[in-house]
Amino acid sequence: MNIGQAAARSGVSAKMIRYYESIGLLEPSSRSASGYRQYGDKDLHELGFIRRARELGFPLKQVAALMALWRDKSRASAEVKQLAESHIAELEHKAEMLKEMAATLKSLADHCHGDQRPDCPILEGLQDDRVSCRSTR
């Protein structure tokens, strides 16, 4: 199948397929006699793996490590678990930061009258270096 068909079946855009090949995440595809990329079931399986890992928020470097472990049938599952647990900790940290950001913005918005006056605690808070996600709680 060509790159357009592979993109449609895998849920990964043709542009991203080319990019993954260029950075070595995906092995270069075979080429037809006319030079077009050709993909098979193995490629689709790998693209699906990459897509799911990216949907879970793994950065490309970790996706590459996961793919290497996935391809290595003699791998230790402990390595995979360690990567997953490390990523979980990062996601939990990001979630906490998002909660703090929302709380800060909510506090600023609660103090804004939202009327015709020019005074705006939201804009004042954005310009004040002392206002941070942690200081408004």
TrEMBL record:
Domain HTH merR-type: residue ranges: 1-69
Pfam family, one: MerR
Sorted UniProt keywords: Coiled coil, Cytoplasm, Transcription, Transcription regulation
Coiled-coil parts of chain: 81-108
Matches recorded under InterPro entries: CueR, MerR-type_HTH_dom, MerR_fam, Tscrpt_reg_MerR_DNA-bd
CDD domains in the record: HTH_CueR
Localization (cell): Cytoplasm
Signal peptide span: none
Name of the protein: Cu(I)-responsive transcriptional regulator
Organism: Candidimonas humi
